[in-house]
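Module 6 notes. Inverse folding takes a fixed backbone as the condition and produces residue identities as the prediction. Think of it as a translation problem where the source language is geometry and the target language is the twenty amino acids. Below is one complete input and output pair. Work through it position by position during the lab.
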């Protein structure tokens, strides 16, 4: 009887244990399922976050590339800054942006371009200058420029104690809450600053955004330098062209075969050819005869100049005007080389020496005539210059003295 009673008590107890184990197993499975769901959700969130970050970085890289390519060929500073502001407006999550550049003497920062500002705010920006040479100037823009270091401000109130009263009032007037300011630098020289800001609180500004704006600022710096170089080159070329066009000399450029690539106004007036008529034509057949000894000499000289550039730097040639009139020109030739050291073209500057040449010819004729008269004179005749050198010693003097004119002319032995 006791055995059966024990079995009667053991069976419910065993059943209860089995139920407990079953419930624990079910609960454990539930926890595992919940943990699995949680892990799946976390992995999904991480994947989404990684995808968003990758997508953001890709967009950032594409933005820097887009701006770099877009402004690479823009050679006007105002135009390229306008392009950058439009790109930032369309691609970045900032309410406003602007560029300040240093003036030519680098004494102040001046507003050059921006987006997102009201007309009143833009007028305030344009009428305000940020001094770069005053010790009391310690605003973020000035500090960014001088130190060439970016600033990330998540709450402008956090730095209010470090700002001058003027800078604090200025920031307050613009209604800025958080902003990033990066220097625009080219070859370690600050050119200005790029700043973007939000008028209301947003999530904290990140290093990724800072890196993006720094990359954009670098592209701006390169392009501003290119634009300035082009401007200086254009100004230099304009001054050079003005000088050349107004020069009282013949100035022409030609390639090694003699084809004219430039003919200044003085040359056009002197020879009687317009720029359109002479440009692209060879000097042979225009201002030099197309054939004959002079033409062959010119061709030979051009060939030698391409090999020995120091040859024929100074020559005198009898040229021809359009109406057929001959003119003696003293040419000074200077070869222009390409990047491989080959003669690309020749610049020639000419002076009209026709009157001098005629005077020299007349003087020579006079001397020859005088020499004939003196030689034919039966009276011994000697002509001595002021420096006591013998200029003439006629044949009668040779017969009288027994000394030859060839031994005495040009000496002081008379």
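Target side of the pair, the amino acids:
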């Amino acid at each position: 009887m006791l055995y059966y009673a024990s079995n009667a008590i053991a069976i419910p107890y065993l059943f209860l244990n089995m139920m407990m184990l079953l419930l624990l197993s079910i609960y454990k499975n539930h926890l595992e399922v919940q943990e699995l769901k949680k892990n799946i959700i976390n992995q999904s969130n991480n994947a989404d976050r990684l995808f968003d970050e990758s997508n953001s970085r890709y967009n950032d890289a594409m933005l820097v590339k887009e701006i770099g390519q877009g402004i690479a060929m823009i050679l006007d500073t105002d135009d390229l800054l306008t392009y950058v502001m439009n790109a930032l407006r369309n691609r970045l999550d900032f309410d406003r942006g602007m560029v300040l550049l240093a003036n030519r003497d680098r004494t102040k920062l001046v507003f050059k371009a921006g987006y997102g500002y009201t007309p009143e705010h833009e007028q305030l920006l344009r009428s305000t200058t940020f001094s770069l040479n005053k010790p009391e100037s310690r605003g973020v823009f000035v500090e960014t420029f001088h130190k060439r270091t970016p600033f990330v401000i998540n709450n402008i109130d956090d730095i209010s104690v470090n700002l001058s009263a003027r800078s604090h009032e200025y920031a307050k007037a613009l209604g800025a809450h958080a902003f990033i300011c990066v220097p625009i630098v080219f070859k370690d020289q600050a050119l200005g600053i790029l700043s973007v800001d939000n008028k209301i609180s947003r999530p904290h500004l990140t290093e990724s955004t800072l890196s993006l704006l720094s990359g954009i600022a670098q592209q701006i710096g390169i392009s501003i330098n290119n634009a300035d170089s082009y401007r200086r080159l254009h100004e230099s070329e304009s001054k050079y062209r003005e000088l050349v066009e107004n020069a009282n000399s013949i100035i022409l450029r030609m390639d090694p075969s003699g084809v004219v690539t430039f003919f200044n106004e003085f040359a056009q007036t002197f020879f009687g050819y317009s720029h359109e008529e002479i440009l692209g034509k060879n000097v042979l057949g225009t201002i030099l005869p197309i054939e004959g000894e002079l033409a062959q000499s010119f061709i030979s000289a051009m060939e030698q100049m391409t090999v020995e550039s120091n040859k024929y730097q100074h020559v005198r040639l009898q040229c021809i005007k359009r109406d057929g009139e001959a003119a003696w020109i003293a040419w000074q030739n200077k070869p222009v080389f390409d990047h491989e050291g080959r003669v690309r073209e020749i610049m020639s500057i000419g002076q009209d020496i026709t009157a001098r040449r005629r005077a020299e010819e007349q003087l020579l004729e006079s001397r020859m005539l005088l020499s004939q008269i003196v030689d034919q004179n039966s009276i011994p005749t000697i002509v001595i210059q002021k420096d006591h050198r013998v200029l003439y010693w006629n044949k009668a003097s040779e017969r009288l003295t027994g000394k030859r004119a060839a031994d005495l002319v040009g000496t002081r032995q008379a």
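Reference fact for the lab report: Residues 1-5 have pLDDT under 50 and may be disordered.
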